[in-house]
From TrEMBL:
CDD domains: TM_PBP2. The chain crosses the membrane at residues 68-92, 104-124, 136-156, 239-260. It holds the Pfam family BPD_transp_1. It is a multi-pass membrane protein. Residues 69-260 form the ABC transmembrane type-1 domain. It is found in: Cell membrane. Keywords: Cell membrane, Membrane, Transmembrane, Transmembrane helix, Transport. InterPro entries: MetI-like, MetI-like_sf. Belongs to the binding-protein-dependent transport system permease family. This is Carbohydrate ABC transporter permease.
Length: 275
């Protein structure tokens, strides 16, 4: 037992330093958001004298963060719902249905994971523009689905392959059709994976900047992350208001990480083991 204590300290000290480096920017941003402009200019690192909630109100209402928040919520909710529907159906088909070309389709999904968005952003934007989908919710939702569907299909396929084939065979013998097996058997058994993948997809879509900037160029259609980026120029002389906008954008993500840590970890490690 005494020999293991030094080893624990060797691991604990770097982890503590990493945790401090991760938490400090959030604490610094929250502290700046509570200051007046004068307090920030005099000493940006000192604790705020008295909380200034007016900065949050100015960022939320005056800078239009409320509208950006609604835009992000609508787009992310619809994109994640469509990703989970298509990803779970494709994962079930690739994992448990025997048809010609299934292996090639799965390899195509794997190949899609290695294609950066910068490679396809010009043709994708051109297709969306020719289809009249630029500056519309459906355009951004479809762009997110196209970008993150290979990841969703891969994780759902990996999860469904861990479910014994005998369960599917027994359901077919009981008279269930393919759709019945999916709805009554595979979908309930895949609920934990769907939750984990849905959380990861929501984080990817919520934190995205590039795709949203290409699909939603109009100021009134901005998502929250684009709105925060615009605040940097609009409130360049009022850093506490800008910090308040950053804090508003970070709160939903922090809540997800705080309350759904286990599901996020399960989603990241899904497919790494079998059986």
């Amino acid at each position: 037992m005494p020999r293991t204590r030094p080893a624990r300290w060797v691991a604990a000290v770097p982890m503590a330093a990493l945790a401090l480096a991760t938490i400090y920017p959030l604490v610094f941003t929250a502290n700046v958001a509570m200051k007046t402009r004068r307090e920030y200019v005099l000493d940006r690192f000192s604790p705020a004298g008295s909380p200034r909630w007016d900065n949050l109100a100015e960022a939320w209402a005056g800078a239009g963060m409320a509208g950006y928040f609604v835009n992000s919520f609508i787009v992310v909710a619809c994109a994640v719902a469509l990703l989970l529907l298509l990803g779970s159906m494709a994962g079930f088909a690739l994992a448990r249905l025997r048809f010609r070309g299934s292996s090639m389709i799965f390899l195509g999904c794997l190949a899609g994971l290695f294609v950066p968005f910068q490679v396809i952003m010009v043709p994708l934007t051109r297709v969306m523009a020719d289809s009249g989908l630029i500056d519309t919710y459906p355009g951004l939702i479809l762009a997110y689905v196209a970008q993150f569907l290979p990841f969703t299909v891969f994780l759902m396929t990996s999860h469904y392959r861990t479910i014994p084939a005998e369960i599917v065979d027994a359901a077919r013998i009981d008279g269930n059709t393919v759709y019945g097996v999916y709805l009554r058997i595979m979908l309930p058994l895949g609920a934990p994976a769907l939750l984990s993948v849905g959380i990861l997809d929501a984080l990817f879509c919520w934190n995205d900047v590039l795709i949203a900037l290409l699909m939603m160029p109009s100021p009134e259609n901005r998502t929250l992350m684009i709105g925060v980026n615009a605040l940097r120029g609009q409130y360049s002389g009022d850093i506490p208001v800008f910090a308040s906008g950053v804090l508003i954008a970070a709160v939903p993500v922090l809540m997800i990480y705080l309350f759904l840590q286990r599901q996020i970890t399960d989603g990241i490690t899904a497919g790494s083991t079998k059986g």
